[in-house]
Structures are given as C-alpha cells and as structure tokens.
Amino acid sequence: MEVKMNIPEQEWKYKEWVEYIIKEKEKVFSSKKENMLKVYYIHADKRSTQKLLEPAKRFGEFYLITLHYEYPSTGSKISAEYWIHEKEPGLLMLFTSSTREGYEKTLKNKLRTAFGLYHMWIKPETFKIVRDDLIENKNCGILNFYGERKRNEYKVISYVKEHANRKLYYRTDNKDDGIKRVKELEYHLGLSVRSIEFVYENSRVQITTEGLFHLKKINQKAFELMDHVIEKIREEENQMRNITQSITTEIVKDKNIENYKSMPGRIQFDEEQDKESTTELIAKLKSHFVFFEPKFVAIDPIHMISDVIDRNKGTIFSIIAFKNSIILMPKYKVTFESFLEFYKEIVENIDESAKLLPLSEVCI
Question: Tell me, what's the pLDDT at 253?
C-alpha cells in the first residue's frame, strides 16, 4: 500500500507547486474524505540535509523521498511519500498526506534516531504569542485544542485541585467558544497548549508546537496563514538552531601543543536553582536523558556536575549547574538536536521562561 499525493514529477518552483496543489486538490488527494495536507518543518544541519536528500529524486525546488514501514500483526508494507522543500539553509519543509501512524513510523522515527535532524519546536510562550496574534490580527477562531499541565505548581495561577487531569482535549463548533475556553483553562488549570486548530476565513489549519501545520482545507488562505506564522517565529527558531549548532569542541594546535577549544552553550533560568530543584530536573528529564553519576558539590556558585547521555542518539555531553544557569559542554558524538531536546524538556517540564544563550569560547 502506498500513501502518496498525485503530483506530476516535473521541474517545480515552490510557488507553482503550491498553486497546483490548490487548483488540482481533487486530483492530488485520492482520499474521498476531506482533502488534507500535512507540512512538517524540520531543523537540519548541512551534512544531514545532504544525507536525507541523497537518495531522493529531485524535481526543481523539491525532492521526493519514500519511507517504508509495516504492520507487525500482518506484515503488510506501507510506503509514505514526502515532498521536501528547503525553506532556507537549515530549515526543511516536508509535505505529505500520510496518516499520523505513518508519520510516527517513518519520519518521526527517523528524527528520533538520525543525527542532525530535529522537528521545529515552538516554545510554549511563543506559541501563545502566535495564537493571540492570529486571534487579534487575523480574526482567527479556535475549533479544538490539546494541552498538558506540566509546569511547576508554584509558577501556575490555578484554582483547581492538584489531582486535576494533566492532559486535556477540547473540541467545539463555535470558534469564539474555543478562544474563550483555551484562555480560561490556561488561567484556571495552568494548561500549556501543544496543538490548536484555527479557522481562518474559509480555511482550517492545525498547528502544533512540534512544527506540524495540518492544512485541513487546502486553499490560498491556509498557505497564507502558515507563512504568516513561520515569519512570526523565524528569528527565534533560527537563533535556537544556530546556538545549538555552535556548541562544539575542536582540537587546536599552538606551537605543537594541543588544546581543546570548546564552544559551550548556556540555559538561563528565571529563578535560582538549588539541590532540590536540580534533583527534580533530573527526575523529570530521565525519560529522554541519563544523568551519569551526577555530583552535587558545595563550590559556590556551582552545585552540580554531570555527564548526560541522550537515550535516543547515544550522544554524551557534560553539564555544570549553577544557581541560575546550566552550562552545556559537548563531549561525545554530540549534534545540535541533543542540546535542543534538552532545552525543550527543561522549558516544557521545569521553567517555561528559561532562555537558551551562547557562551564565549573556552580553552581547556
């Protein structure tokens, strides 16, 4: 079985490709259900971009790749196609009509294990800014949303009991009701929203914090909305990618003496951390990272030192925890996405206001 969009294999310019999708959507999408297009934005370094596109077929400004998976119960094989466009160096757009299951077993699985690839993660605070901008300046409504209650209790304005559900899905036919409810639940439950389906004039677009734009009605307005959001977040996304890609170590020689030149990174907290909060950090991040023999020390202002292993990538980096920051030091086979994932986990689980910053180079 093959999940694909019926698009002529010819030389394409991006604008022409989009125009064809809109005009010929009945031909492009074979499903008899509502025509839907998924666009995944992916951060990629130069080497990983080349590796991803190497086996692909090129059609002008697009590449076409096919990823495969199978159902364990039946052994039947499924193929999922992705049309790839390089939005700018380091940022890829992958278009597909594959199902969520197809994505999780193909592209998401690849992102989890391959070096140098990472989904375009939108910070919760930024996601909220984007949402409010679309409501106020684009007159968008909200039809459904999904969120999680993951922030620390003492940082959340909340009037519900602690045992309230930590995950919430909300669906409505009233676009104004959706706006009202998402704001209420943020305030009263401390909900951190991860996905919103917007209605914009005659279009419907679902946007998630993991870089998915699900165009549920394919028309010019849907693409305009997506482009507007990307422009809104582009500077911050480029900054996060550039900082994490700059965290490196190299050997430099000076008069036959070898030194390691390290370019660390830094995560700056909004509030001071101590042994208790750092122990909580380790506990909340343990599903993605292994903290190898963390050492709590009494060397002011340092209070913890540890090597950290990325469970998915097998990379290793070191951290030095200060009262108000964590220094990130590369150690073994580290690529940028390990640092970006580490920062993401801290923001979503510990401190939404934490900032990712560069640090001056250090010779050791």
Answer: 65
